[in-house]
Specification:
The structure is a homodimer. By secondary structure, chain A is α/β, with parallel strands linked by helices. Chain A has helices at residues 14-27, 48-61, 81-92, 111-116, 130-148; strands at residues 2-8, 32-38, 68-78, 98-103, 120-122.
C-alpha cells in the first residue's frame, strides 16, 4: 500500500525539508510513503479563486479513480493523535491501493475540491503556514503508526 | 513589555532552532521576546512523576510573583489563530511587565504546576514533540501580532 502526500509548491526552507526527511526515513518502517510537490503557479496576477481552481486541477491530475483521498483542511475533522491513529487504521484496512493526503496551497482548497472529497481532517484550530503543515502532518503520520503498532515514539 | 517562552531542554535539532530564529527575528518588530531553555534533567533513573516535579521546580525558579503565566498544555483551551490574537491582546493590555509562556518537558507538567497556573492553552488536539511545540507556538505568536496589527503575514 502506498501513502502519498500531495502538496503545492516545493518545500522552500531547507530546514523544513530536512525535518521532513527525518520522519520520512522513520516512516519507511511502516509504509511506502512518498511526497508529490506540485510546482506552484507562476502567474502572480491570478485572483485567489482562480489560483485555488488551478491548483485544484493540478492536484486532480495526480489522483486516480480508486484512490482514497484525505484533504488536510482547517475546517476538517479534528482528532487527538490516538483518534487519528484509529482513523489511519480504518483507511489502511479499506483495501485502497493508494491513500492520498493533500495539503492545499497558501489559500487552501477550491470549492470544487472541498465539495468533491469528503474525507477532511484538520491538525489544529489554528492556521499554520502550508509549508509547516506538511511537517506537522508527517510527524503525526509517524506518531499514528507508532501508536497503532504500540512502538515507543522516537522523540 | 517582555514576552518570554520557557522550555525544557535545549532545542536539539539545529533545523528547529534555525526556524525558530526566523520567527524570533520577525517578532522583534512587535515585542521584546526571549526564550529560556532550562537544561534538561540528567538523572535518567527518575520516574516520570519525579521528572515532572523537578522540571516544575526549575520552571518556578524563573518565575516572578507578578508574571502573567500561560502554560501550553494539551488539555488547555483551544483557540483559532484569530481567537488566539484576541487572547494575546487581552494579556498584552493586562499591565503585567512579563508575560511568560511555558512549554513543559517530554511528559508535560506536574500536577502542582497545572493546579497553580490556570491560564492554559493548547495548540492542537494532537500531541506533538515538545521540541516542535516551541516552533509552532512562536509561529502563532508572530501570526497573532500580525492579526492584531492588521499586517500582511510573511509566509
Amino acid at each position: 500500500m502506498n501513502l502519498i502526500l500531495i502538496c503545492i509548491g516545493k518545500t522552500e526552507q531547507k530546514e523544513i525539508d530536512s525535518l521532513i526527511n527525518i520522519y520520512k526515513n522513520r516512516l519507511i518502517h511502516y509504509c511506502d510513503f512518498s511526497m508529490i510537490e506540485i510546482p506552484k503557479l507562476k502567474n502572480k496576477k491570478t485572483s485567489i479563486i482562480e489560483q485555488k481552481n488551478k491548483e485544484g486541477e493540478l492536484i486532480e491530475k495526480h489522483l486516480k479513480n480508486d484512490d482514497l483521498i484525505v484533504l488536510l483542511d482547517e475546517k476538517g475533522k479534528k482528532y487527538s493523535s490516538k483518534e487519528f491513529s484509529f482513523f489511519l487504521n480504518k483507511i489502511l484496512i479499506s483495501g485502497s491501493k493508494r491513500i492520498v493526503f493533500v495539503v492545499g496551497g497558501p489559500y487552501g482548497f477550491s470549492k470544487h475540491i472541498l465539495l468533491k472529497y469528503k474525507n477532511q481532517i484538520s491538525l489544529s484550530e489554528m492556521t499554520f503556514p502550508h509549508q509547516l503543515i506538511r511537517l506537522f502532518f508527517i510527524e503525526q503520520l509517524y506518531r499514528g503508526f507508532t501508536i497503532l503498532k504500540n512502538h515507543p515514539y522516537h522523540n
